[in-house]
Amino acid sequence: MRRSNRPRRKRYIANLDIRDSQLRVIGPDGENLGVLTREEALNKAHEYDLDLVLISTKADPSVARIIDLSKHKYEEQKRASEQRKGKKVELKELQFKPNIDDHDLQVRINRAKTFLSQGDKVKFTVKFYGRMKHKEDLGRSKMETILKELEDVGVVESAPKKEGNLLVTVVKPK
After folding, report:
1. In the chain, what are the domains?
2. Is the pTM value of this prediction over 0.85?
3. b or e along 10-41 (b: 16 or more beta carbons within 10 Å of the residue's beta carbon)?
């Protein structure tokens, strides 16, 4: 049996579907109307021309609220879509060798600043090839230069660490 990735719909127990004989009722303005019988609570909801919705069945007596159920569902759906809509943070990678020229390094820093200002994370990778493997201190000094330049727009998420022939660090926006 295949399961879908869709979130399950929240089921509301409202109006005549409520089976409890006694209910603690909360009015449309949030005021406590006290403990009422099911029929009294339904009549109150009818007076306001709204729905009686069961909120908590675990309480004794159960708690019901007088609200406009369709409006409540709409607002809840809107909130959920806003949460899903949030910008996805991307990881942008900038690579260079330890013997990179100062101007080229500045270009990488400027590019990283634009990525960070857009809300993306930036991964810096220093690649060590051949005899450059023995120049790890040069790569670390370039990495420190970058991190000092980006202090005002970013925060170091992971400190520079050596992974094989790479030196890697990740910077996230402030």
Report:
1. 15-84 (3.10.20.80), 91-173 (3.30.110.10)
2. no
3. eeebbbeebebeebbbbbeeeeebeebebeeb
